[in-house]
Amino acid sequence: MAAKDHSMTSVAIDTAPEQVTRTGIRRRLQDALPKIVLAPSFAVTLFFVYGFIIWTGYLSFTNSKTFPSYALTGGRAYQRLWTWTFENDPPSSWYTSITNMGIFGLLYIGCCLALGLLLAILLDQKIRGEGFLRPLYLYPMALSLIVTGVAWKWILDPGLGLEQTFHQMGWTSFHFDWIKNKDFVIYTVVIAGVWQASGFVMAMFLAGLRGIDGEIMKAAQIDGASTWQVYRRIIIPLLRPVFLSALIVLAHMSIKSYDLVVALTSGGPGGSAWLPSNFMYEYTFRRNEMAVGSASAIIMLMAISAIIVPYLYSELREKKS
Amino acid sequence: MRKLMMTTAVATLIATGCISAFSQEVKEVEMLHWWTSGGEAAALNVLKTDLANEGFGWKDVPVAGGGGDAAMTALKAMVAAGTYPTASQMLGYSVLDYAAAGVMGDLTETAIKEGWDKSVPLALQQFSVYDGKWVAAPVNIHSVNWLWISKPVMEKIGGTEPKTFDDLIALLDKAKAAGVVPLALGGQDWQEATMFDSVVLSTGGPEFYKKAFNDLDEESLGSDTMNQSFDNLAKLISYVDPNFAGRDWNLATAMVIKDEALVQVMGDWAKGEFSAAKEAPDTDFLCYRFPGTDGSVIYNSDMFGMFNVPEDRKAAQIALATATLSPSFQSAFNVVKGSVPARTDVPDTDFDACGKKGMADLKAANDGGTLFGSLAQGYGAPPAIANAYKDVVTKFVHGQIKTSEEAVTELVKAINDAR
């Protein structure tokens, strides 16, 4: 596209030699304009994102406590995290955080994808009232995680929400106290998280489904494929790019879910609902162990990169070929 | 035209900046704090009025969020940017941290003139004096080892003041038999650890508490007495309602206020909740020392850390510090806040029965050397260690740590790791 513009401008120069200088300045300005406009945000991103990543990495090798200190003292912070990684009885806070990350990440991404796809397929059946139903499912995404957390905290609290309501209705044997149970509290975070994000995933899948040519489905049906086979063998494989984008969005959302844990569980009984982001904040700001906090942040960054980098790599390679 | 306006605006900004920098004296204090709830804000207003009477303005920098985590983060940013507030509400070790970083002011002259060194308890001066210099003005002293008991429930079960730990267990049993929640507890780490402070003092006595939780003596931390303390904590935990995990402290207090629960073990800030609900000591609720801790006080304290502000702001800072520790303010403020004055020579006439007892206990503990910093509240050891301690206690309460033996081993390990 850019090359085409270029040739057209040069044609203009050839036909009107007296305007050479004016057009030349204009052209140069036109070329430079995107760069000028982008420069501030580029600089800001470079400094505030990548600059601070480097700074955090540096701090993780110092013995910074309340304030940053700049003398490098080696990898003691990483050593401590490493020993905590294997302390499972009683569980160290770091062990709890990373196992919770595993449970939460898998279930959150898995449930959101499954529910989102199911909702999208159901909505795609040309049903009446789709225009009403779609925003209904999408709406939770518009809420802040704090609101989601507080609302679900009340719903799940045995003394206030579901359990209490059922008891008042006469079902006194009903028992649901996951939010107060150290072994199950992380699953309540999954419930609230899935409730919030699955509508958004649904919207992504719905867009994907709408992009699939209806002729393919008809052709398959004429060939005698059942609806199940059509979806399993044709539609879902065609949705692969949507799966990838949804996965990336959900993966980074799950890694940075700090506010949901705080609002929903305030850390859970005995800190049993912590995620690595909670660990990082606790150690950096409340325990004045900035080095350990920074080290855990770097490990989180590496975990995210381990997911994002292969994705970017494969995307870019596809574009090239 | 637009350019002209911009230039004018910039010029004005620079000019006003210069004027304030070169003026003789700024008659204003800039105060960072997290006292934003009704009672606390009212208490702080007393100080505002006192300063206004002396002609000093008040620039409020409130950062809400109980416990002050958010405020401390804001303070860190302000100090990093070099724009110190005149003063900031601070707790224990953070005063010393900032003093070590060399950003605190020096109030020694005022302190000596006002006689703070004689009237402020020595235990507190460990935190308000750094390297021989006064860097903070203590506002109040909270004490942690209290029982808050609902009087109607107490009458219903026919209980009397528990004098020993076993008495307390017997009392809790009575409440359980009568069908009320015996112990109102909020299952958050700091509340559990605050209660454990009292349990340790009760189980091991003052000497032991000091050695273990103030001196961090490894032998005491790993001793049989500590083991016994965890056993006692486990006993207490068996009297909470099943829904206690994660509950806020004021909701636990509300259970006692509404006579749904017999007792809460909590610092004297709980009294503010009773007052707010129009309940009076001795008629609606009772305040006793945690059994076996009479004569000792586990304290924490709010302080106004004084920063090293430019010369033109020093006069306002001194006025603030003087007003903070003046006996009249100490009395007026602490009556509202529920705590006791940070100096021992303030008359107790305006205080209620619990406040009077608190002041008498504080004086006795100060004279007898049994005034100890609360480890749970960050006055026993630096935050890294205090939080390691809270981790162990909360994991024990919620079952990640299963036995007292394991808890003792973990406590020693966690504290050594955080040193």
Task: Describe what you observe in this structure.
The complex is a heterodimer of chains A (321) and B (419). Chain A has helices at residues 2-15, 20-59, 76-85, 93-123, 130-138, 145-156, 162-168, 185-210, 214-222, 227-238, 240-255, 259-265, 276-286, 290-320. By secondary structure, chain A is mainly α. Chain A folds into two domains: 2-59, no CATH class; 76-320, MetI-like fold (Orthogonal Bundle). With 419 residues, chain B is α/β, with parallel strands linked by helices. Chain B folds into two domains: 27-142 and 300-355, Periplasmic binding protein-like II (D-Maltodextrin-Binding Protein, domain 2); 143-299 and 363-418, Periplasmic binding protein-like II (D-Maltodextrin-Binding Protein, domain 2, 3-Layer(aba) Sandwich). In chain B, the strands form four sheets. A five-stranded mixed β-sheet of chain B has the order 2-1-3-13-6, with helices on both faces. A four-stranded mixed β-sheet of chain B has the order 14-7-12-15. Chain B has a four-stranded mixed β-sheet with strand order 9-10-8-11, sandwiched between helices. In chain B, strand 1 (28-33), helix 2 (38-53) and strand 2 form a beta-alpha-beta unit. In chain B, helix 12 packs across helix 19 and helix 18 (383-397) runs antiparallel to helix 19 (404-418). The model of chain B is unreliable at 12-22 (pLDDT under 50).
